[in-house]
Amino acid sequence: MRHLLTIVAVLLFCTTHAQEIYHEKWFSAETEDLPQNSIKSIVPDKYGFIWMTTENGLLRYDGRSFKVFNSGNSNLQSNRLAYISGNIKNDSLITHTAYYVDKILINRRNIIKTEKSKSYNTFTNDDAYEDLLYYNNSLNTEDIDFSNTKIKCENGDYYSIGTSKITLFNKKKKVIKEITQQYKKNTIYFLHENELILLDYKKGSYTLFKNEFSSTYKLDIPNNSKIIYNSVVQQLFIYTKDEILLFKKTANKAYLYSVFSKPNININIKSLYYDKASNKLFIGSIDKGLKIVSLNGFKTLLNSNNSDNYYYGSFPISDTEFITSKGEIFNNTGVQRRFKSNTDNFNYSLAVDQEKNIWIPNENKIVKYLKSSNYTTSQTFAFDYKIATVFCDSKNFIWIGMDQKARHNAKVYTIDANQDNSQPTPLKAFNQPINFITENRENEILLVSERELLTYNPKNKSLKSISAGINEIRSVFIAKDNSVWICTYNNGFSLLKDNILYKMPYDNQMYLLSAHCIKEDSKGHFWISTNKGLIEVNQKSLLNYYKNKTPVYYHHYNIKNGLLSNEFNGGCQPCAIELGEEFIFPSLNGMVAFNPENLHKIIPSNNFYINEVETDASTQYFKDTLHLSRDVYRIKFKIDYAFLGNLDNVYFEAKLNQVEGGKWINLINENEISYTNLEPGTHTLYVRKIKPFTSEYEVKEITISIPYYFYEELWFKFFIGLLLITAFYIAVKLRYSIIRKKNIELEKVVEERTADLFKTVSKLKITRNNLNQEIVQQKKLIGTISHDIRSPLRFLSITAKHLYEKSLLSENNSIKDNAQVMHESASQLYKFVENLVDYSKVFMEHNKLHEGKKENINDIITDKIDLFKNMSVGKNNIITYFNNCDFQIMVNRSIFAIMIHNLLDNAIKNTRNGQIKIETNIVKNKIFISMEDTGVGISEEMKAYYINLQKNYETDKLALQNYGLGLHMVLELLRLLKGEMKIYSKKDHGTKIIIVIDNAQS
């Protein structure tokens, strides 16, 4: 159902207009910017610096700060400066101090004392012209006399003012043109663009030398005005208490151009200069210092009837008018009228359909104002939730996005604006709130949620989603080349390419952190609104960054350029519009309007220079190479750069090849860089500045030369190296000579010792032969003992045993006893000889000590037990044997049998009516053999002897006569096998002996 609301449209024709805002800034001695408040002369130089003379020094202004030249830091005798004259193009400005005490040439951004004085002056009759240059002149000009004055042009030509004629000479003093002209006392003679002009100040008329003064033209000069002429830049100013006018001329007509107007300017003006490049006016006062007026480049459209002038969405409704989401209709001068409706001041969006009907949301309603009734009637559509945005597509469909509260219902509705009775249709495909809607070239609808970008195709109803990640999208902009750019709230802006967001770099001051919206001008430059002003950037630079990560130049505009506020508004739709040739952006204080083609831009395109450095205690000037002494600890390079625009647009970087390791240091808001304690050698300082609206750098290189001490020089190091090599060579030669002599002496000694050695070897051979013979004799002796002694002893033992057994049948005890003694002695003697023979055989075959084969240790011990069985029974002893290693091991059977034999023999000898226990074991590749008896034991003295003998076998004296041969033989064999013996004994409680043998080779 169509609801018609009759709304009375009240036209509120307002007296408001586009605000012309000038940014003004004072510099004075009170603010410590100036040394003194009287500014006599203001002149630019060839490099863009502004020079000013005061009663307390000469000033140089670079747009950032003032540099003072006076007797304190220069070789001037006086600080009272006069006016500045000279030629800017020739880099030869001239000034002087009072009474010409100091004649000063301003050249190459510095001052030079010179003997030349008036040869550089524009006027040769300075006394006649000083009144015009220095004082505020009233309409009464009778006291100013220009007769017999030569007025010089920039190219060296000059006009000679005579009483009856005016002659133009070239710099070689040849006449170029001569005009008969009667000198007029009340006329001001001055140059404008190197053309002589005669101004009749009282009559308000002027004549031109070019026209041979044949025609007189009127000039509208305000009443009660005064004149200031800046002869160096040929600027004539006429000013009142409310306005400052500049003399300008077209081809044949002159006019006064208002460069600054303000009620009650209230400045006692001493000097003036207008800088066309920066659109700034410099006003020098007699007693208040310097005032710099930045002339407006923007206009701000306001509604003076409202207490608030913050705006959001707007839309053009004709070629000359646009409407805001508040319902206000503007033209390019201000508010024209406003709808009287129920819309509040916090609407962020609006849309205009193809029939010019206006759709403005209001809370959970959207009101359609009908063009057919000149917007006096409307239609209202209600929804369940508050509306976030509204958009009209190319098919004349109205798209409506709901805000964050509509989380569980339809988020997007459409209304067909082609049909009068169309009602909102919910799109079920969307399940999240939508806050921005636009359309691409393929007629797809782009819908922005909090963290997602949705692409909806109305034809096939397909939906694609692109995650925005951490980005909170504010708006989507489609450029002329069909590239898609995403503005976010806290993460700058990005290029959307192949469904991926490519983050663009921030500007130097991070103003782009919150990017609201983008407009593109005819040159392919983007204009981006932020919370910190307006930023202009070349799209080509952004695409170059995307491809090659090249630098991007951002140009910043703020209140110094005429904005009422730096804070633009976003989160609305449309965020920025075009009205004719103008762009219009909403801000916190008005609608900002400007023509991007005609906007005066102050671009940092000037050259920069690095020729000054401050050391620890002085200032030094240089060209391309700086030579420093070694005692300089700290140096500070000054970057000379004149720029009268926004300093946020100046961005220097520097690196020193031997300090930063190739890393560039950002010199944000600084025109200087310092280094301390540089090493000797040659350093290269690189300083660069990005060129405006390009991806290129302007780079300067400075060579820094720091000398080495003589002992650090290469030649000295080479000399010392050569000296060391020579000394080393001489030392080697001497050493070689000494060694050679020693070698000769050693050869003699060797010969002598060799002769002695031969003798010794001969003796050793004889000794070896003797030893071999002795060994042979010992073998024969052992063989003799084995055959001639052991056999009889064996028969003797058997015979004694037989006699002893026969004596047992006798009743004669004496015979029994003697037979027993005889039997035992014979047996013991036989066993001793047999044991000694076996032991000797072992050492006679010492080369075979470590040779062995796998034997069963049980067989060896069992054989020995059987050997001593009768002896053990005779003493009423019991032998027990426990074998825990019942497998074959690598062992020398002879050595092992001797050790078991002696241990078992000792145990039986020292035990009667007792037990003898033998036990074998292998633990961690070691063979353990334990022999334990219950006999009489051994004394502590004997135990200590054997333990000490085991530790010091080579040095201790053997006590065979006291302790017998048995254990000595065991210890000697263990020493050869690198084994050990442990003795545990207690008197009358038996003895336990453990031998440990390494079984590593088994």
Automatic annotation (TrEMBL):
Q: Does the keyword Transmembrane apply?
A: yes
EC category: transferase
Give all residue intervals belonging to the Histidine kinase domain.
784-1001
- Where are the coiled-coil regions? none
List, alphabetically, the CDD domains matched.
HisKA
Catalytic activity, as annotated: ATP + protein L-histidine = ADP + protein N-phospho-L-histidine
Organism superkingdom: Bacteria
Q: Which PROSITE patterns match?
A: HIS_KIN
The name this protein carries in UniProt is histidine kinase
Membrane-spanning parts: 714-732
Keyword vocabulary terms for this entry: Membrane, Phosphoprotein, Signal, Transmembrane, Transmembrane helix
**Signal sequence interval, chain numbering:** 1-18
Give the EC number.
2.7.13.3
